[in-house]
Amino acid sequence: MSSVVVEGVTKSFGSRVLFADRSFVVEPGQMTALTGPSGSGKSTLLNCVGLLEKVSAGSITVDGRDITRLRPAGARRFRRDTLGYLFQNYALVENASVRANLQIARAPGHRGGPGLGLDEALKRVGLDGMEQVPVYQLSGGEQQRVALARLLVKAPTVVLADEPTGALDQVNADMVLDALRDLAAGGAAVLVATHSRHVVDACSDEVRIG
Ligand SMILES: Nc1ncnc2c1ncn2[C@@H]1O[C@H](COP(=O)(O)OP(=O)(O)OP(=O)(O)O)[C@@H](O)[C@H]1O
């Protein structure tokens, strides 16, 4: 179980301050919506928690460790063992099969929950029978569902989702929200950047920036 403690975080690009002195906590079991106008820095803040961007000031503590101070090897371990993400570009290996993309999620040493088996996860997202298909042959919505299945297999203790229902129809959007809620119910700390009221309503609380 991991809580994410964001304390006094500021992010600037050059002289432009995107957000300043932001503090909030996402507890294990909580699904928090991150909202704010377009350009306010929601994706950037998720990227800071995912260690894809550096904070300009402040700390982000997970399991009592300030992850903004991790060296590259520690950052890699954090991403591999603790973090799961559902971003707009899906971050899948396009030439590999659906099954291979899910197998990567269970790297040795990961510290997530028990997670779903591969077959169960594929069934859950409606992609059973497609294990051998290379990802590049799938539609955008199907790729999004592979990324979701990968999260369910990994069962990470910190989950970051960036506009996870943006490109999906209602049925698939609800599938994504149900899965994220299940991860939270299993003890994950889930942070979801969104403009959608429907997504905010599915969350247990809301942090606004901008
Ligand atoms: N590497 C970078 N260098 C300079 N500016 C950047 C960089 N990354 C993001 N920005 C700027 O920071 C601002 C915030 O972007 P971000 O994508 O975090 O906003 P957002 O709140 O997620 O927006 P949206 O709701 O439209 O997705 C944007 O104006 C963007 O151009």
Automatic annotation (TrEMBL):
UniProt keywords, alphabetically: ATP-binding, Nucleotide-binding
InterPro entries for the chain: AAA+_ATPase (IPR003593), ABC_transporter-like_ATP-bd (IPR003439), ABC_transporter-like_CS (IPR017871), ABC_transpr_LolD-like (IPR015854), P-loop_NTPase (IPR027417)
Superkingdom as given in the UniProt entry: Bacteria
GO cellular component annotations of the record: plasma membrane
SUPFAM superfamilies in the record: P-loop containing nucleoside triphosphate hydrolases
Signal peptide: none
PROSITE patterns (alphabetical): ABC_TRANSPORTER_1 (PS00211), ABC_TRANSPORTER_2 (PS50893)
Domain ABC transporter as annotated: residue spans: 4-209
GO molecular function: ATP binding; ATP hydrolysis activity; transmembrane transporter activity
PANTHER family reported for this sequence: ABC TRANSPORTER ABCH.1, IMPORT ATP-BINDING PROTEIN
UniProt-recorded name of the protein: ATP-binding cassette domain-containing protein
